[in-house]
Amino acid sequence: MATETLTGGSTEGVSSGGTRIWLGQTRSFAERYARELFRNKTVLFWSLLFPVGFYLLTITVFVPTDQIPADIKPMVFGATAISYGTFGAVIACLNSFGGQLAADFEADRYKQFRALPIRPTADLAGRMAAGLALAAAAFAVVVVVSLGTGAEYAIRGPESLAVLLLALLVFGVVWMVLAIALVSVVTDERYASIITVAIALLSYMLTGYNGTDPASYTGPDVLLNYLPNTLSTRLLVYHFVDVGADTLSPPALPGTGWSLAVLGLYGVAALAAGVVLVRAVVYKRGVLA
Amino acid sequence: MSTEDVPAVRASGVEKTFGSDGVLDGVDLTVRENEILVLLGPNGVGKTVLLECLAGSAVPTAGSVEVFGEAVRDDGGESLSFLLQDTMAVETLTGAENVAFYERMHPAFTDRHRTYLEDLGLTPDLDKVVENYSAGMARKLELALTMSVDAPLYLLDEPTAGVDLSMIQRFHDIILDRYADGGTFVVTSHRPLDAEIADRIAFMRDGDVTAVGPPSDLMDAVPSVVRVTGSAAMAAAEDHVVDERLFRTGAEARGFLAEGSSVKEVRAAVDTDEDGARVEADDPTYTDLFNYYVHLRA
Lengths: 289, 298
What we know:
The structure holds 2 protein chains of 2 kinds.
Chain A: H1 15-39, H2 41-62, H3 73-106, H4 109-113, H5 120-148, H6 160-185, H7 189-206, H8 208-211, H9 228-240, H10 256-282
Helix pairs in contact in A: 1-5, 2-3, 2-5, 3-5, 3-6, 3-7, 3-9, 5-6, 5-10, 6-9, 6-10, 9-10
Chain B: E1 9-18, E2 21-31, E3 36-40, H1 47-55, E4 62-67, E5 70-71, H2 72-75, E6 80-83, H3 95-102, H4 112-119, H5 135-147, E7 153-157, H6 165-180, E8 184-189, E9 200-205, E10 208-213, H7 215-220, E11 225-229, H8 231-237, E12 247-249, E13 252-256, H9 263-269, E14 278-282, H10 286-296
Parallel strand pairs in B: 3-8, 3-9, 6-7, 7-8
Antiparallel strand pairs in B: 1-2, 1-4, 4-5, 9-10, 11-13, 11-14, 12-13
Helix pairs in contact in B: 4-5
């Protein structure tokens, strides 16, 4: 084997080698998980088609379109689509992402991975990158379909794109970390799937369709500005649908800066919890060592 | 202790329990550097769990495992390449995508897989999804991936399971290729044929290693083998073999002469007029070795 070449990179001492290995592993995990998620017909149905179907059903059956003024209807459809788009993202991050992790547990794949010099955070980052790609697709599909039904969107300001990225990122990370925690306990793929779909549906219904319909929410109003799913969704509606902050009240939406700070805190806390879970529970290593 | 005295693997008092079920019962095992140790035993005796402990993918309930003098958990997989049967190849990816995935998982991964996959005849199937592979094809991919890592220690769990007999020699050749370059191997198997590549064989039963040594030493300790054909002859011969037990292999049965018995005595006890009845002495094979150490020797 005189011609053999190292293709996995080298660990020789320098930190740049460690960074290169981490980036390489992250890329490998992201590619693998994305391939698996986007090829899985069940995943595509639940993450992409189901929310779209739910949206179409809602605007044709449940929304009294004949009682809504014509100039308001495009905004109602837009807000409804964002609500279902984030619901699709929850399904992607909780059910599809969790199902994939459960499948790896069921296949005993982590027994193999634990014997490899894998950086657990590379696994987490790659997994999350693939999960976020699916979540973004789930969100985008509903929004794109909604355009065909007459929904209209508007960009509130120059900061709106950053709001979109941060809201979807934090939203996705929080749900994916919850999925890791759930699947660490319920490792059977079928049970994990049932539980995650149930949580996605319940969280959607019980929080007033992710906070876009405060009238149907029965909990303390203030929570709609603090729950990660409702805050993200309400922020997205405010920034991409031509409605006033009072439309989503009570409670009135807090300022964008405050909302982003709260979301940022959620993101940091969720990431920290994710790192601990993946290191200590999934890879059975020390939290830090 | 000089570095020459440091074994490649040292397992001391390794116990593993799952709830109230004990799987490993205080296993002690040492593997020297550049040695092939084949761990033989029937299904369910704990071979895979022991290998998981040696690889650091399972934490022993008690006891310790060192690789090259360092606790295996501290080594973090840098010094070894582990093949865990049926878990390595990702079924939803193609063979080529599996290679792309695993090549960044170990910094010592090389492009040797190209040669191995070619030798094993799997190259034309690399674009197929692994869930459409046969068991033998999946083993070929797993072996090529594992052996592409330039590690000093290879831990292979049932690498030839599901592989047809004509292909086993090629699997052995790949293992011997790395062995010639200084590699150390622990190979679990329930196929006596895999003992052919062993420097030493360890037999496992009931969660412990019950015998270990070079094949020749283990062979020397096996009682004389008697081969019997004919159903009536087999029944008569059972009184003269160890544990009164013969092991059937097709039309014949083989056993180990009990202390004080001889082939002559067995022949005398058998009705040689029976059609096809025959009693002969034979050299022990690896299958005899397996049967003796796994099923008979306490």
